[in-house]
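Before relying on records like the one below, remember that each one covers exactly one chain. Contacts with other chains, cofactors or solvent are not represented anywhere in the record.
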Amino acid sequence: MRLWLLLTAVLLCLPALPAGAATGQSVAVSEPPDAPQPQASGQQNPPPKPTSAGRDSLPQINQREADQSDDQENPAVVLHHLIADRIWISGQANFIFQAHNPFHSPYAGTNSFQSRVETTALSRVLTLYTGIKLTRWTEFIFDAEEAGGKGLSNALGIAAFPNLDVVRNPSLSQGVYAARYFIHYTVPLTADRVEEEPNPFYLQDSIPRQRIEFTMGKMSMVDFFDLNAVGSDSHLQFTNWAIDNNGAYDYAANTRGYTVAAMLSYAGPKFEVRYAEALMPTVANGIDLEADLRTARADNLELEWKPQWFQGLDTHIRPLAYLNHANMGDYGQAIAAYQQGIDKVPDITLYRHQGSLKQGFGINLEQALPANFRAYFRAGWNEGHKESFAYTEMNSTVSFGFELLGDGWGRKEDQLGSAFETGGISTKHREYLALGGLGFILGDGRLNYGHEEVSETYYNAHVVSGLYMAVQLSFINNPGYNRDRGPVVVPGVRAHVDF
């Protein structure tokens, strides 16, 4: 809560937007100094010019937003998104079609993945990215989005679900909604600048090599946390929930994946740290957020170390910790009430307590390798006595994979990727499901427990301008942690356009 007060005070002290700024007119802007400049012989030296830098010096944002920048040799349909060096406009459209084969299933429950053939699962996400520079180092970002269609089995029955774009509540309106709106303010700590191609979250063409950043408003936590360049982008890379993100990171989000948060971060050439406090949903997988920070909130802390251990190539090591406070149910209490005959079936929603705590940890490794090859590794764990609340029903996970760019076969904008993930749930969580309890994603009525194992392989081809087409194949063993059901084979096709 103190972070919210601090960032509010900082933003209220920002210089006002001068008249004519919104129209792109030339105006004089009173700005705080970038940084003290070194002096020699009593005279001030000019600040150094921006220099090119490796990816380890650039801002960390989700790869799908980085895809919108103007630095690609094969750019989007619209060549230039930053108008008059002040206003940003771009967009994207992502369509994912998936199907699956019939599979062995001696029984099924309310939240089971359907064992019969499904061939009509088509999802879409349309996004309009906009932004405006308010001052030299202050930006306001606003993104509108529309998500529709459906996923296989209404996105139920598999914790590591194969389509990240699917909205988990099919009853939600499919109209346009405000996905993001936040203020972003940068405090330079050095006069040294690095070149940066503007993108939807950073409208600058150069940024301080060392800086402090304040961000406050509506956003997705995985816009900034638990990222890597191999597995974080459902638009051009993998589409599985537990491969694109850490499946055990029960990050604060409503049903659509967004929350309201305040974030403070430091970025330097070899080390970064970011902390955010965010609103939690009022109920598990709910669309509404709880505004009372005294009883419900999420605290998130991530460090990032950027050595160059292997032939001078980029390495990223990102440990993550979080603590959720929310109106979460207790698996043990729900099981006890059922066993004592109080409830006909275990029902965790009857045993929720405001202010319940759920902590979790993660590690995210990313390594660049020779010949346009990149690999990643993720692992995560969270406390398994309280109910899974915001992302998916998973208490532990390990995943790893690779991406190979197409330079070696004359298709430098193409990508080939493959990854594997295995996830598990706690003893209390699995007992709850085995007794017939329902989570917000899982519930076969019974459970013969086994780790849920998934693999995904894709080939993404650049067609023309901003159009990309991909084919993918996923394999899911023990769907919903149930060894009595499956395995499931899920082929898919994706079409993506950057405007």
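Residues 9-56 have pLDDT under 50 and may be disordered.
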